[in-house]
Design a protein that fits this description.
Layout (H helix, E strand, L loop, with lengths): L1 E2 L16 E8 L4 E10 L30 E5 L2 E4 L12 E10 L5 E5 L3 E3 L3 E7 L3 E7 L2 E15 L5 E4 L6 H4 L10 E3 L4 E16 L6 E2 L4 E13 L20
Parallel strand pairs: 1-5, 8-16
Antiparallel strand pairs: 2-3, 3-6, 4-5, 7-9, 9-13, 10-11, 11-12, 11-14, 14-15, 14-16
GO biological process, one term: carbohydrate metabolic process
InterPro entries: Ig-like_fold, PKD_dom
Protein name: PKD domain-containing protein
Length: 254
């Protein structure tokens, strides 16, 4: 049996059955870990034989969709994907369990600023982050598993103790039809000169497909961070001069 459950929970017993896969998706906040178990309960022997005899029945693998418990979808090969339901395997009879783990993490967002890497005290620096929906594929017990990450929000850390959250990664001044050094939804004005390390964290909504064309949502966002974008902020001072810097390179502020 295959069962997708909320994050940070112990794997439930889920649907009862034989030779099925039990899989739980766990969200660590930075990646999705899918832990699978194949549980094969041992059935009593046929014909009244001894429990340890050779005439015991082997595990069953359902092949008829109508024979599946409610909420289960047959995916072939004796495997099914099931919604969480109450149920137990045969009581008092030990089960043979095998485990497999597949981990999936989204890529980091791209981060840029304008002007590129510089700013002026008291004037907005425009930051633009970009991230797209992405699918990461893997296998669990040899079966295909795909996790789809869709960006839902961006959190900017401007490096001076200020953060801002936006549902989009922002856009350039040109794309917005704005003049340089005008505020945007993702811009930031620094109060002091210095070098600041800017970072952006993308929050993704995650879904899992166990190879059946059906997406199961995973509770909680998955985040990916891009850091280390330096911005040097200068302080601008004005002065009246009689010549330009080209005419007098040794002049004030030249």
């Amino acid at each position: 049996m295959a069962l997708l459950t909320p994050a940070a929970t112990n794997a439930p017993t889920g649907c009862s059955g034989f030779g099925w896969q039990n899989a739980c998706a766990s969200n660590s906040g930075s990646q999705i870990d899918i832990v699978g178990e194949t549980i094969t309960p041992q059935r009593p022997p046929r014909g009244g034989g001894n429990p340890g005899g050779s005439d015991s029945a082997g595990p069953e693998s359902p092949s008829d969709p109508e024979a599946l418990p409610p909420g289960c979808t047959l995916i072939g090969g004796g495997f099914a994907v099931c919604e969480p339901v109450e149920g137990e395997v045969l009581p008092g009879i030990p089960a043979v369990t095998a485990r497999d783990v597949a981990s999936f993490a989204p890529g980091g967002p791209a981060l840029a600023g304008e002007p590129d890497g510089v700013g002026v005290v008291g004037m907005p620096v425009n930051f633009v982050a970009s991230a797209s929906a992405q699918s990461v594929s893997g296998t669990l017990f040899g079966r295909p598993v795909t996790v789809r990450f869709t960006p839902s929000a961006f959190v900017f850390d401007y490096g001076d103790g200020t953060t801002a959250r936006s549902t989009s990664g922002g856009a350039s001044w040109g794309e917005l039809g704005q003049a340089q050094f005008t505020p945007t939804a993702t811009s930031h004005a620094y109060g002091e000169r210095g070098v600041y390390q800017v970072a952006v964290t993308t929050e993704y909504f995650a879904e899992v497909d166990f190879g059946v064309g059906r997406w199961f949502p995973v509770n909680g966002p998955v985040t990916s961070t891009t850091a280390g974008y330096p911005v040097e902020v200068f302080e601008v001072r004005t002065a009246l001069v009689d010549k330009t810097c080209d005419e007098n390179p040794a002049g004030p502020a030249c």
